[in-house]
């Protein structure tokens, strides 16, 4: 169950700098791009139908999430793909990533999605244990050197 303190907010002029200042631990940088780089990537690839939000705990921005939201074309056409999940190093291991994922899964399901895809680059400290704990399974696909994962979303 998601606590009322963790929620998603649109990124606006009022919170953009605070969200861009969020950082992962040094050894995690190989696995997740910065918020600034993610926003630039979203702007460069409108055909991926990027959807992004800041993750908040109370009034504090603590993370960032970006999905390719049911794009009309491309390798993930008609599907929801978790493109980026970043929880600031000060707020990791507090359950915030799991709570943010619960919110995202509920939104995808409400949009009629039956699965959520993501991918990760393998290596020491990789995020696979986190995704496995949420129920993701490898699809057998590799996309740009990353292992593609699927979370099946049965209807409620």
List the SSEs and their pairings:
Elements (H helix, E strand, L loop, with lengths): L5 E4 L6 H5 L14 H10 L5 E8 L2 E10 L10 E8 L8 H15 L4 E6 L7 H7 L2 E7 L2 E7 L4
Parallel strand pairs: 4-5
Antiparallel strand pairs: 1-2, 2-3, 3-4, 5-7, 6-7
Write the element-wise H/E pattern from the N-terminal end onward.
EHHEEEHEHEE
Neighbour order of strands in the largest sheet: 1-2-3-4-5-7-6
Name the CATH superfamily assignment.
Answer: Gcn5-related N-acetyltransferase (GNAT)
- Globally, the shape reads globular
CATH class: Alpha Beta
What's the overall average pLDDT, rounded?
89
User: Rg from C-alpha positions?
Assistant: 15 Å
* Percent range for β-strand residues: 25-35%
End-to-end separation in angstroms reads 15 Å
Number of helices: 4
Overall description:
The chain is an alpha+beta fold and 156 residues long. The protein has one domain (6-152): 3-Layer(aba) Sandwich (Aminopeptidase). It has four helices and seven strands; from the N terminus they run E-H-H-E-E-E-H-E-H-E-E. It has a seven-stranded mixed β-sheet, sandwiched between helices. Helix 3 (96-110) links the parallel strand 4 and strand 5 (115-120). The protein is globular, with a radius of gyration of 15 Å. The mean pLDDT is 89.
Question: Short description, anyone?
Answer:
This protein has 156 residues and is of the alpha+beta class.
Using brief descriptors, characterize the structure shown.
single chain, 156 residues, alpha+beta, 24% helix, Aminopeptidase, globular, seven-stranded mixed sheet, 32% strand, 4 helices
